[in-house]
Here is the input.
Amino acid sequence: MTTSRGSLTAADLARADAQLQATDTLLATAYPGDDGSRQPVHTVYVPADRYTPELPTVWGRAALAAVEAAGGLEEIATSVGLDSGIAAAVAPRVRDKLEREPIEDLRIDFEDGYGDRGDDVEDADAVRAAKRVVAAAGAGFAPPFIGIRFKCFEASTRARGIRTLDLFVTALVEHGGLPDGLMLTLPKVSTVAQVEVMADVAAALERAHGLPDGRLRFEVQVETPQLVLGADGRSPVAQLALAAPGRVSALHYGTYDYSASLQIAARYQSMEHPVADLAKGIMQLAVAGTGIRLSDGSTNILPIGDRAEEAWALHARLVRRSLERGYYQGWDLHAHQLPTRYLASYAFFREGYPEASARLRNYRERTAGAVLDEPATARALADFVLRGVECGAVAEAEVAADIGIDRRALTVLAHPKLANR
Here is the structure.
């Protein structure tokens, strides 16, 4: 019997390993992949002084009242362009969502939506907001994700922003602890240095309160062109993962600040303007594989008054457009946007579920089908289904029946690195 023998030696392999050691380290640290945790489909922003523990319930009821006044969820669904069959399938699921969990992610705003009210007032509001978050979590009223947006780290507002963050986190710790879904948002970022400083502030707060290292992560709002393309011709947004390892949880596109910075006339500022698509495309490339998530912006055309139907149609179309482009989260600014947020999102997942579930079953069972899927595609299919489950568009029982796996197995299929955790 002849043994096959190559020409390269162990020394050759060792040399290759040595040459690629830096690459191996970079891939392991900067590109760990998604952690498999839930991502909300939206973020709702409310001025800090308007936040109460009951706010999600109030918004849910307001959304349902608007729905009833418009003839029901199926009527709205068909009016915004959903197929009648899909409309009938998603309407009861959306109603349940609006009754059970109308807001997935709530941001208590101390920035543009709040303004400058003087230090004494903002100090009091920061502490009050934290106490209300603790109360909401204790009473079961808190959304799965909740936190604050504080003022930006430009010179004029830096001290105020850091103080509000400090007071909020300190009050959370002192009155019951940090909620599991705590979210912190740093707005109007223009340089990598601002993100590095935010990481330092987060670490200082962790030390002060005896929190685990890395417990305080934060979102970066991409609202300035300087973060997309810097003065040196490079893209600062692509440097954030290495600048603050493990700290940046997401990038949120700021529709109106960004558009205004590029002198887009107010009438044409939109999530679908070419400058928005360019910025979001760069953001998408910058965070691919890093585990940093993405959120699209908002539309300020609200579904109220005589033009409600037109605004609902616009909102539903923009939500669908974002989903199709790989942006699975966006902002909502009004309770009446909740019905179309969920109608459009649920329709997206329900329409794609039959094909995705069939292909995943074929992949798992090694069954020949019309499409030969590779592991990367299987991961994408599993991630799609998992997102549908997390937001309520797809039931876990359906996944068990149609694919033959439970939620844990679906999560591992979508994120194989979690298999040994």
